[in-house]
Structures are given as C-alpha cells and as structure tokens.
Amino acid sequence: MNFDFHFMMIAMKEAIRYTPVTLLLAFVPFVLGILLGTLIALVRLFHVRILGRLMQVYIVITKGIPVILQILIIYFVMVQGFDTIADRFHWSLHSKDINVIYVALTALFTVAVANISETIRGALMAVNRGQYEAAYSVGMTHNQVLRRIILPQALPAALPMLCSNLIGIMKSTSLVFMISVVDLMNAALITATANYKYLEAYVAAAIVYWVLNGTIEKISLILEKRFSVYRKEGVF
C-alpha cells in the first residue's frame, strides 16, 4: 500500500477551505444549546409539573438514538413535512430550494440541547442546597438567587463537561455528509472521488478535526485556570 502524502495535502487544503461550515455547524447548536439547555435544566431541577416530565422524556429519547439516525429522521421529516405544507398551500418554494445546512443545524441542535442540559443540571445539583436557604433568608427572590448565587457557581463548574459537549458536537458534524452538506469531511471526500484515494482523504480530515478539537481543549484549560483563580479569591 502506497500512501500518497501529496494527495493528502490536497485533500487537507480542501477540508480547511470548508472548516468555517463545520465551525458554524458546531458553535450555533452549542450556543443555542447552552441557552435552552439551561432552561431545561432549571425546569427539571425545580420539578416543574408536566413540562419537567416532557423534558425528561425528550432527553431520554434523544440520548438513546444514534446521532446519525437523528440527522436522517429530522431530514426526512423536515423535507417531507415542508413539501406537504407547500403543496397544500400551493407554494412555489419546495424543500429542494432550501439549503440542507438548516436541516443539519436543527438536528445537531436537538442533540446538543439534550446533552448540554444534563451537564448544566449536574452542575446546578452540585451547588450546596444550604446556599439557597441562606440566600432566601436574607430576602433574595428566586430569580436573584439563581442569577447571583447559583449560576455563577454552577456554570464554571460545568465548563469541563461543556468543553466535552462542544467537542462531541464538532465530531458529530462529520455525519452531515449523509444529507449532502459540504463540510470539512465531505470536502475531503469529494477530492477522492476521482482517484479513490479515500484513506488519504480520511487522514486529512482527521488531522483537521484533531487540530480544531485540540484548540477547543486548550482554550477550555485556560478558562478553567482563570475560573479556578476566581473561586480561590472568593469571587464565586
């Protein structure tokens, strides 16, 4: 077996060219996942009736289904659902006219919310319950307790797991090639279709993913050190 390093560099250049698409697919679901995931975590933490149960069912189902299946299911549901509505109301716009990147973002967001909400819920549960009681005893409202006492302690504690969540989403973006989204992975594979040098293309994509995730890990370690200094100084 002759490994073509020259072709690997060609595939890597093409993968790097589409890296912004992969970053978009990772960071948009991650940021939105933190916002909605925090709300879901609070709903479950304080046992909100009905809504808390629904969120628990949603998380159990989402975490129990492979990401690739979720992407494909959401793709066909969105495509067929949109075409059905378009035909019913006689729209000229159909699913084939819509960029599939929006389907990929929706699918990855669905996965991200479930995982991130569990991360944040675990961090919230780690905060001593006595701090709630102490805050209420000095006249703080429920919102003030969350905003000033609980979340400033819970979110830094959740940082390592949030980093893992982001890396997990980043790796899951490699699956969107199944619905024809041209991202880092698909760009590398397209270069190999002419000469079937798929091994070189896979290795090129793997190197780019490794650099991206290594950078995220490094930034996370820097943030952890900074927050640990603040905790020692009593800021949190």
How does this model look, in words?
- With 236 residues, the protein is mostly helical.
- It has a single domain (5-232), classed as Orthogonal Bundle (MetI-like fold).
- The protein has helices spanning 5-17, 19-45, 51-64, 67-88, 101-126, 129-137, 142-172, 184-190, 198-232.
- Helix 2 (19-45) packs across helix 3, helix 3 (51-64) packs across helix 5 (101-126) and helix 4 packs across helix 5 (101-126).
- The chain is flat and about 70 Å long.
- The mean pLDDT is 88.
Helix-strand layout with pairing:
Layout: H1 5-17, H2 19-45, H3 51-64, H4 67-88, H5 101-126, H6 129-137, H7 142-172, H8 184-190, H9 198-232
Helix pairs in contact: 1-8, 1-9, 2-3, 2-5, 2-7, 3-5, 4-5, 5-7, 6-7, 7-9, 8-9
Q: State the share of residues found in helices, binned by percent.
A: over 70%
If you compute it from the alpha carbons, what radius of gyration comes out, rounded to the nearest whole angstrom? 22 Å
β-strand percent reads under 5%
Main sheet makeup:
none
**CATH fold naming:** MetI-like fold
Please work out how many helical segments DSSP would assign. Answer: 9
The CATH class is: Mainly Alpha
